[in-house]
Specification:
It comes from Danaus chrysippus (African queen). There is one protein chain. The chain is 8% helix and 39% strand. By secondary structure, it is mostly beta strands. It has a four-stranded antiparallel beta sheet, with no helix packed on it. The protein starts with 29 loop residues before the first helix and ends in a 7-residue tail after the last helix.
Length: 445
């Protein structure tokens, strides 16, 4: 059967068996609906994101308020009033339905997952092989496509939505005009290698100002480039392939993590001077900066016994707070802070249920702090395969996830705004932009 990128998949309950997304609850009979995989698990070990436990907690709080009872403090005093990260948690569940289900052919063969991005002009891009495809959220259709000379390993829109940078094989970084979908500049990675084994550019990240961007290659070389793809500086920071590169919201730090590594490096931006290093006994899977703080880094990892853990690293003070998410065997694959609410979104994958049919192994969890789940999807439900990467829409109301089953699922993360936004309001990223203007363009952050 012919498949097209961003091809729409049906949302009807009477779809063919080859459509792998979850069917609606009403399509099952009553006896089957009452059965649940977590009914046979150990009652003493439960996942904190089960819906019934969230409801019980809310009902307990309601009774305490009705009878004017003081709530029991279960955590130390300092942890009770000090939030690990700034957040405005939601008061009701929104992550319950998918807005759209699209197709991503051959995505399951990709070595590096960051082949999906969402620009500020509501254009979704998916890079597959040597081609990238653009899908408009407004028109709900495929609008254009472009191509590169080599196979694409990663892609990222600039904050202004004017440029698209693509990391490819054969040491090449290509800079494309977003409106024309054409190449306007290239840069070769300056790493020292042999002709028989050229490197691949495996990670890219833009500075929040849009004046520069970072790239990482399969030989562990980190490069800082200007907006015109001109070299600023470069340094070999690790020996393995760089998997993730992230520039801080204040454009003063860049965090780097390599494949299957147990540490995260923190360097200055854009000079790439090593500042600090976070070592652990875990395997680092993903990192993400909090958008409301100048340099608060979230680190997602997995222990040797397959337990998901997150750590919060304050870059200026080097203070670290860590926590275990669940007593069960869950691998953390993707992590992202919402720029709208400050909530932390996690993609968890249970390896014990990965071979079951139908699949009930993936969870999407929304946290307001490490111990509080405010929303979730995947409680005993089947059909959602391992989520490899996810991105937010520009307004923060939609969440796009790419799975190993080659599905692009766009979730309703928050209700859409009915009030027109004030376009004159300055965001937090305007601070480094102002500093660049004050120095008359000397800074390239």
């Amino acid at each position: 059967m012919d498949r097209t990128t961003f091809g729409r998949k049906t949302l009807n309950t009477q779809r063919s068996r080859m459509d792998r997304f979850v069917a609606s609850r009403t399509s099952f009979n009553e006896s089957r609906r009452r059965r649940s995989w977590h009914a046979t698990t150990n009652p003493e070990i439960v996942d904190t994101w089960f819906g019934k436990y969230i409801k019980q907690k809310k009902y307990t709080s309601y009774l305490d308020e009705a009878f004017e009872l003081e709530q029991e403090v279960r955590v130390p005093y300092k942890e009770a009033w000090l939030r690990p990260w700034p957040c405005v948690p939601r008061k009701k569940n929104y992550l319950s339905s998918a807005d759209s289900i699209l197709d991503l052919p051959t995505y399951s063969y990709a070595t590096f997952p960051e082949l999906l991005d969402w620009s500020n002009d509501n254009i979704l891009v998916a890079a597959l092989g040597r081609n990238y495809h653009k899908w408009s959220w407004r028109s709900q259709s495929l609008i254009s496509q472009g191509y590169t000379q080599n196979e694409i390993q990663c892609c990222k829109f600039d904050p202004r939505g004017e440029l698209l940078v693509l990391g490819t094989d054969n040491k090449m970084v290509e800079l494309h005009n977003n409106a024309l979908s054409k190449k306007i500049a290239t840069h070769r990675c300056p790493c020292i290698d042999t002709i028989e084994h050229p490197c691949s550019v495996t990670a890219v990240a833009w500075s929040p100002t849009g004046n520069s961007f970072a790239t990482g290659c399969s030989f562990g070389v980190l490069v800082s480039l200007s907006r015109e793809a001109k070299l600023i500086t470069w340094r070999r920071v690790v020996r393995e392939a760089i998997q993730i590169v992230r520039v801080s919201p204040d454009a003063r730090y860049v965090a780097v993590s390599s494949v299957n590594s147990s540490f995260v490096l923190l360097l200055s931006w854009p000079t790439l001077e090593i500042i600090s290093r976070l070592d652990s006994d875990w395997t680092i899977r993903t990192i993400a900066w909090h958008p409301w703080r100048s340099a608060l880094l979230g680190v997602g990892a997995v222990t040797s016994d397959l337990q998901a853990r997150i750590a919060l690293w304050d870059a200026p003070t080097s203070k670290v707070r860590e926590t275990t998410l669940s007593p069960k065997r869950h691998s953390l694959d993707a992590m992202l802070f919402s720029h709208r609410t400050g909530e932390l979104v996690l993609s968890l994958w249970n390896s014990d249920r990965a071979l079951l049919h139908p699949k009930t192994c993936s969870h999407l969890v929304v946290l307001s702090d490490p111990k509080t789940v405010v929303d979730q999807w995947g409680e005993g439900r089947s059909g959602l395969d391992r989520v490899r990467t996810m991105v937010f829409s520009p307004d923060g109301t939609k969440l796009a996830t790419a799975t190993s089953d080659e599905d692009l699922i766009i979730w309703n993360f928050l209700p859409e705004d009915k009030i027109k936004k004030n376009t004159n309001c300055k965001s937090f990223s305007a601070i480094p932009v102002y500093l660049d203007q004050a120095t008359q363009g000397f800074s390239l952050r």
